[in-house]
TrEMBL record:
Protein name: Solute carrier family 2 member 6
TM ranges: 38-63, 83-103, 110-126, 132-156, 168-187, 193-214, 288-309, 315-333, 340-359, 365-386, 393-416
Organism taxonomic ancestry: Eukaryota, Metazoa, Chordata, Craniata, Vertebrata
InterPro entries in UniProt: MFS_dom (IPR020846), MFS_sugar_transport-like (IPR005828), MFS_trans_sf (IPR036259), MFS_Trehalose_Transporter (IPR050549), Sugar/inositol_transpt (IPR003663), Sugar_transporter_CS (IPR005829)
GO molecular function ontology, one term from the record: transmembrane transporter activity
PROSITE patterns assigned to the protein according to its UniProt record, in alphabetical order: MFS (PS50850), SUGAR_TRANSPORT_1 (PS00216), SUGAR_TRANSPORT_2 (PS00217)
Leader sequence residues: none
Keywords recorded for this protein, A-Z: Cell membrane, Membrane, Sugar transport, Transmembrane, Transmembrane helix, Transport
Superkingdom field: Eukaryota
Region span, Disordered: 1-28
Amino acid sequence: MQEPLLGAEGPDYDTFPERLSPSPAERTRVGAPQNRRVFLATFAAVLGNFSFGYALVYTSPVIPALEHSLDPNLSLTKTQASWFGSVFTLGAAAGGLSAMVLNDLLGRKLSIMFSAVPSAAGYALMAGARGLWMLLLGRTLTGFAGGLTAACIPVYVSEIALPGVRGALGATPQLMAVFGSLSLYALGLLLPWRWLAVAGEGPVVIMILLLTFMPNSPRFLLSRGRDKEALQALAWLRGANADIRWEFQQIQDNVQRQSSRMSWAEARDPHIYRPITIALLMRFLQQLTGITPILVYLQPIFNSTAVLLLPEDDAAIVGAVRLLSVLIAAVTMDRAGRKVLLFVSGYAMGWGPITWLLMSEILPLRARGMASGLCVLVSWLTAFALTKSFLLVVNAFGLQVPFFFFAAICLVNLVFTGCCVPETKGRSLEQIESFFRTGRRAFLH
């Protein structure tokens, strides 16, 4: 039976004094926190995930079109198609690597906004491509933007959300990525491949405009000594009438305890390396399920099977099912818990949205920017290896071989979930961090 995150005794278990928590009467008089502005800030941020999902599967309808292109400069061989599909993941790995610096240097919000530059440039290159190099560079740049947002957005969302809605909001990055993929599949039925790239510019522009008016993460601002800005940001997020004193004190105390930079010696402390190791393994195992090569080559996969519908129609159906699954996960995550969904659901309801959410929840504040970038780097290097080799393996051994491998990994994931993944439902980020600081093994069950 899982032990509570709060309520343990002992000098190593540092929780926050209950006297700081406002009484029910005070909450009634002053007002409870409102979530409407948090929802707006989250929506502005996760438009970056929409672009990421859109760009990730861009090759699904485009590769078949270019393989039959009459332009010799754009006609793709199987090897060129594998590079066109996989180079996105190399860009995403580079984006994750840059996030290790930018997340803590610029902050979560500005890092997300910065991703618009390579994203817009990448779409422009692919829309006006006159040769293979422009297609590959465009894919790399959109991948870089995707890797950067994949590291920054979950952290930003988790740091501005209240515990009661953090699970639902934590699923929105994956939800918007799936919606972006579905939009690409749907538009692929109507638009030629160049106009698909032009259409990808729209969400990037809207994201920049909306984020301009959103606050930065209060936790990031406090970590930079900008206490007044942090208080203003938290007040804006929670609403004018909300009592934020206890929450602000809670965040401030946690930030002050971790105000210095983390040394390599401290990185060997179990309360630092355990959550980072769990997050890294989750990202690694998530990619080994094969989701990225399947999505990148979805239409070519359907082309090689005896399906009744057209491959482009099948791809759109897959996108719709994924969207519905993530919606169900978003609604049930704060009620059923993260771990239950990892056990009983498929990728889109479990290992898709929940691994991103858990990464942002369990990483310690002092290492959150660096560690989230490291998780994305590992994730997309793994995705590159799988995506680059997928078509070659299929051509050599048939479609069944990689899918047997993906199925075996899913069994490994079940064991890993049962042994190593903690339940974080209903806990604040400070409570989760205190939980890991105890050094007890109870959190693994």
